[in-house]
Design a protein that fits this description.
Blueprint (H helix, E strand, L loop, with lengths): L1 H21 L7 H25 L10 H10 L1 H36 L1 H15 L3 H12 L3 H24 L4 H9 L4 H36 L8 H10 L3 H29 L9
Helix pairs in contact: 1-2, 3-11, 4-5, 4-7, 4-9, 5-7, 6-7, 7-9, 9-11, 10-11
Length: 281
């Protein structure tokens, strides 16, 4: 009974503090914007810890955050090697190839109504294919190293990036394009000076969506064949050994890496599209 009261008390205090901070006159400051989610996250971890220990849940079912933290800190060398294999070799290479190919294809589609009517429906069909079915095929085609993971990532990120870029290129209105035409601006000059800058918010939306898809695709592909490194490989192996603390440590590393990946793209967006209303303070 005491642990139930403690958990409820922690939740109530954190809720009261967060409501006060969110409604305070300083709520728009950077400190409060960071403090509110930090308190919320810390509260979830404390409640998790209290519930798991209070209910005496076995670690093989759900380990407490403290046990996961100990395993995380004691396995940093393994986690770093897995991160390099999954993120930097598989996810990042596929992300760059897939997003670059999507942007080039979007420009070709913008130039050709035939491709717009023919390629987009085909791309929609390919995007609807379940990754759990295509991943083992690509692993068999490209081998068990990072190349097959990059191929899976390319398939996952290509269509969302393509759709966002095509929509972004159509963001300018007729008056703006007519003005460029009156100034003797051809297609490529109009693309460079007007349409690509106007498309940047939509392009970065696609890039941010693709960050999470890239990491997920690389992880899923590793379940179907991988060297003796990689987050997906480690999770699959540790689940078979009932090493749930290591599984959660890998999940934590993946979450941190994915957040850093997304944040890096968002920071680049803020730097390049400072003129857009969404980026103004």
């Amino acid at each position: 009974m005491n642990w139930i009261i403690s958990v409820l008390a922690i939740w109530a205090v954190a809720y009261f503090v967060n409501v006060k901070l969110a409604n305070s006159s300083l709520r728009h400051t950077r400190l409060i914007k960071l403090l509110v989610p930090a308190i919320f996250g810390a509260t979830l971890l404390l409640v998790w810890e209290g519930l798991v220990r209070g209910l005496e849940v076995p670690p093989v079912i759900l380990p407490p955050p403290s046990l996961i933290g100990v395993k995380f800190m004691s396995s940093l060398d393994i986690l770093w090697g897995d991160l390099v294999q999954t993120l930097f070799k598989g996810a990042l290479s596929g992300y760059i190839i897939g997003c670059s190919a999507a942007i080039v294809t979007a420009i070709l589609i913008d130039r050709s109504p035939f491709l717009q009517r023919g390629l987009l429906p085909v791309g929609n069909f390919i995007a609807a294919l379940p990754i759990i079915g295509t991943a083992p095929i690509l692993v068999m085609w490209f081998g068990f190293d990072w190349q097959s993971k990059a191929a899976v990532v390319v398939v996952m990120v290509f269509f969302p990036m393509l759709v966002n870029t095509v929509q972004g290129l159509a963001a300018t209105d007729t008056m703006q394009r007519d003005l460029m035409h009156n100034y003797a601006g051809g297609y490529w000059k109009t693309l460079q000076k007007l349409r690509l800058p106007a498309a940047m918010p939509a392009i970065f939306n696609g890039l941010k969506i693709a960050t999470t898809l890239a990491l997920i695709g690389s992880l899923v592909a590793e379940f179907f064949g991988s060297p003796t490194q990689g987050m997906g490989f480690r999770i699959s192996a540790e689940v078979g050994r009932l090493g749930l603390d290591m599984v959660w440590a890998e999940i934590t590393m993946a979450a941190l890496a994915g957040s850093a990946f997304y944040g890096s793209v968002a920071l680049i967006e803020k730097t390049l599209t400072f003129w857009h209303p969404s980026q103004r303070g």
